[in-house]
Amino acid sequence: MEIERIYSDLPILETERLILRKVTLEDVEDMYLYGSDEEVARYVTWDTHKSITDTKGFIEFILNKYQNKQVAPWGIEYKENGRFIGTIDFVWWQPNHKTAEIGYVLSKEYWGKGLTTEAVKEIIRFGFNKMDLVRIQARCFVENIGSSRVMEKSGMQFEGIIRKALLVKGKHQDLKMYSILREDC
Q1: Which of 18, 41, 121, 149 keeps 20 to 30 A from 73, CA to CA?
Q2: What CATH number labels 2-132?
Q3: In this structure, are residues 179 and 137 in contact, taking their beta carbons and an 8 Å threshold?
Q4: Which residues does 100 contact at the CB level (< 8 Å), separation at least 6?
């Protein structure tokens, strides 16, 4: 199966300022720093990490996905200081339809520097070149202006608003939908 081929050994990807690599247990403190930040967790589907145990549990969940050759995130490492600053992944992949969706989170300290856009562009390249995708999409809460900008700067086109698309933290959320097609690149 395609998923097992790609995810049997998640490749390291590199950009000008970032290394996209497997998440490890050594990343627990850096992940906890942003995972416990209410502002970072505001626009994601997961709850704010209340303790380092929450973060460790999430990393163990990721490690299990690696071990079972399932779709799992890349950790985002900032080359300048070697810090683990976030994750990016295909939150789902449908090989039969050649489509996938990107999701990402970044430590607030690194917002506004173009780093997420840099990571998204690399994942888009990987998706079209190595996963044989024809469509890559991403969604964000309507009020998440920063994420909308990342998608736009990554070459994605706004497709519309999906009304009450997800029940997140007790509230139905409207989502903006963006996509990029192979022929757009």
Answers
A1: 149
A2: 3.40.630.30
A3: yes
A4: 90, 92, 93, 94, 127, 131, 133, 135, 136, 137
Could you tell me the two tokens for 131?
């996963």
Place of tokens 């999430």: 58
Question: Cα angle at 1 between 75 and 86, to 5 degrees?
Answer: 10
pLDDT digits (tens, 9 = 90+) for 112-136: 999 999 999 999 999 999 999 999 9
Q: Which residues contact 63 (CB under 8 A, 6 or more apart)?
A: 23, 24, 25
Count how many Cα atoms sit within 13 Å of the Cα of residue 102 in the half-sphere of its side chain: 32
**18-72, pLDDT tens digit by residue?**
999 999 999 999 999 999 999 999 988 888 999 999 999 999 999 999 999 888 9
C-alpha to C-alpha distance for 181 and 123, rounded to whole angstroms:
13
- Rounded CA-CA distance 20/12 in Å is 6
